[in-house]
Amino acid sequence: MSRTRLPNRRPSMTMQFVYEANHYSVTLGFDVVNDRIGEVFTHGAKIGSAMDRILDDACVALSLLLQHGVAPDALAASMGRLGDGKSPASVIGALSDLIARESRPQ
């Protein structure tokens, strides 16, 4: 499957979320041609920290998967879960869950 390049200017939505008592700001960019989320940016870790770099790379990977047509629900379902089978095992899984939730019709 080929990548859908997003336009240089596109609508976005920024929200706050908490994972394991850490606060993050998440911006979702929309692919208006295909009517779906096409990119994600996350901030909240100390700038320059290992977690900041991990989140940057994770957002690039998640965005590329979305732009290659991976369904948000499938992306979220593929992430690791804690022993209860529902709670995300990492902040990356929590981001995937957020993307899947925001992708569903309201």
UniProtKB/TrEMBL annotation:
The keyword Nucleotide-binding applies. Keywords: DNA synthesis, Nucleotide-binding. GO terms for biological process: DNA biosynthetic process. One of its GO terms (molecular function) is ribonucleoside-diphosphate reductase activity, thioredoxin disulfide as acceptor. The keyword Nucleotide-binding applies. Residues 21-100 form the TSCPD domain. Its EC number is 1.17.4.1. It catalyses: a 2'-deoxyribonucleoside 5'-diphosphate + [thioredoxin]-disulfide + H2O = a ribonucleoside 5'-diphosphate + [thioredoxin]-dithiol. It is an enzyme of class 1 (oxidoreductase). Belongs to the ribonucleoside diphosphate reductase class-2 family. This is ribonucleoside-diphosphate reductase. Pfam families: TSCPD. Transmembrane segments: none annotated.
